């Protein structure tokens, strides 16, 4: 099968490798473009940094040389990105923002310093609200923006079988740009929220049982090959 990967180009490499390991043909078709924005990168005194995307890790690592904080991430791919730029104490929630808040409650101490979420302009869930409800001092700093591409990638002019969506914004962008051939495509969605954004009209709509790339790909393609890699 030909599988369109709608992740931003900076995030697609691992997914391309995993789809290829399943024996399918990955096609890069980014619907969002990531751009860093100016933000307060001073994290002195922070108990921990929290990242919900590799884009946040990249934006922070460009703006700051600080690497001494504990880092909590929403998933393993983001954790790998944090380790790659030099963070040593990195802990992954392997889930969504609720799992990330739960990890903070387990691993960190309220009153021991603020938690700083390095985020994009568009966020899923209320991580800061969940952290504050648990007694933490927490703040969000916007470090990047994910912008819809101005036109559909060339990949959508060729025959495709599957389209992978990792965010509600990407699914909405696909519809806004015309949703070509949706009735003949399978939409693979990372979560129920992403599936809601993708909407109806697909040949098949597949939702990952957990918000992890390995769960999505296994649901779509069957048991993971040994060479497909770890989780998202």
Total E-strand runs: 11
Count of discrete structural domains: 2
Let me know the largest β-sheet.
6 strands, mixed
Determine the structural class based on helices, strands and strand pairing.
Answer: alpha/beta
According to CATH, the fold-level topology of the largest domain is Rossmann fold
User: DSSP strand (E) fraction?
Assistant: 15-25%
- Rg, rounded, reads 18 Å
The tally of helices reads 8
- Text of the CATH class of the largest domain: Alpha Beta
Biggest sheet, strands in spatial order?
3-8-7-4-5-6
Q: In whole angstroms, how far apart are the ends?
A: 21 Å
Overall shape: elongated
Assembly context of the chains: single chain
Order of helices and strands: EHEEEHEHEHEHEEHEHEH
Helix content: 25-40%
Spans with pLDDT under 50 lasting ≥5 residues? none
Which CATH architecture of the largest domain would you pick? 3-Layer(aba) Sandwich
Overall average pLDDT: 91
Set out the fold topology.
Elements: E1 2-5, H1 12-21, E2 25-28, E3 32-36, E4 48-51, H2 54-63, E5 70-73, H3 76-84, E6 90-92, H4 97-107, E7 115-120, H5 127-133, E8 138-148, E9 162-165, H6 168-176, E10 186-189, H7 192-198, E11 204-207, H8 213-221
Parallel strand pairs: 1-2, 1-9, 4-5, 4-7, 5-6, 7-8, 9-10, 10-11
Antiparallel strand pairs: 3-8
Helix pairs in contact: 2-3, 4-5, 6-7
Protein described:
31% of the residues lie in helices and 23% in strands. Helix 2 packs parallel to helix 3, helix 4 runs parallel beside helix 5 and helix 6 packs parallel to helix 7. The protein has 2 domains: 2-31 and 151-228, Rossmann fold (3-Layer(aba) Sandwich); 34-146, Rossmann fold. Helix 1 links the parallel strand 1 (2-5) and strand 2. The strands form 2 sheets. The chain has a 6-stranded mixed beta sheet with strand order 3-8-7-4-5-6, with helices on both faces. The two termini are 21 Å apart. With 232 residues, the protein is an alpha/beta fold. The mean pLDDT is 91.
């Amino acid at each position: 099968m030909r599988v369109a990967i709608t992740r931003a180009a900076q995030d697609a490499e691992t997914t391309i490798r995993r789809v290829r390991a399943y024996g399918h043909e990955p096609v890069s078709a980014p619907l969002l473009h990531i751009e860093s924005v100016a933000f307060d990168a001073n994290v002195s005194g922070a108990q921990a940094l929290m990242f919900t995307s590799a884009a946040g890790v990249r934006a922070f690592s460009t703006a700051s040389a600080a690497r001494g904080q504990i880092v909590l991430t929403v998933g393993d791919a983001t954790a790998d990105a944090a380790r790659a730029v030099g963070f040593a104490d990195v802990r992954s929630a392997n889930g969504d923002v609720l799992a990330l808040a739960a990890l903070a409650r387990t691993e960190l101490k309220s009153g021991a310093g603020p938690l700083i979420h390095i985020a994009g302009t568009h966020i899923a869930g209320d991580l800061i609200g969940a952290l504050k409800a648990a007694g933490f001092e927490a703040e969000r700093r916007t470090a990047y923006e994910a912008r819809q591409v101005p036109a559909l990638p060339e990949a959508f002019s060729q025959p495709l079988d599957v389209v992978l969506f990792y965010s509600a914004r990407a699914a909405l962008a696909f519809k806004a740009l015309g949703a070509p051939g949706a009735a003949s495509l399978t939409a693979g969605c990372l979560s129920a929220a992403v599936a809601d954004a993708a909407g109806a009209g697909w040949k098949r709509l597949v939702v990952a049982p957990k918000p992890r790339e390995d769960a999505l790909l296994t649901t779509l393609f069957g048991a993971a090959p040994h060479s497909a890699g770890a989780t998202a």
